[in-house]
Amino acid sequence: MPNLVEYAGDSTKQFLLPIKTEQEFIELDGRLSDENVFSDLLATLASVGGNGSKKICLGIMKKLMSKDMCLQFSALGKKNKRNFSGYKLFNVVFEAVKYHYPDSSEYQITKDISSVLASAGDWDGGRKKRQNDVAEH
């Protein structure tokens, strides 16, 4: 496998990350039909580091999409949320995690993505705020 991290270079300049709006999401997902765009985004996301596939997945998702965007999705469309696996962006995230953990199964990476999306409400102090709100009532 090529060294995607070195390849990333200045590719982040062509992406407005993290994705904050529905329009940005749809536009970037559509652009991923171009193999060069897919490769550039993959290199950008694969440059995210971390210990363990779930932590890398978390870092990748935080780089890719805002908390508010992540809250709209689940990996497989459960709990009345949008199905992230139905978009090309899922494939880029999957491949970026696979770059770091080539022996990980499809099931494990999908589970990691699912867990990260399910916990998006806890990002940026969300869990602490909810706990404080409960303690005050």
UniProtKB/TrEMBL annotation:
| Pfam families noted in UniProt | DUF4806
Ranges for domain DUF4806: 12-94
Q: What is this protein called?
A: DUF4806 domain-containing protein
Organism in which the protein naturally occurs: Popillia japonica
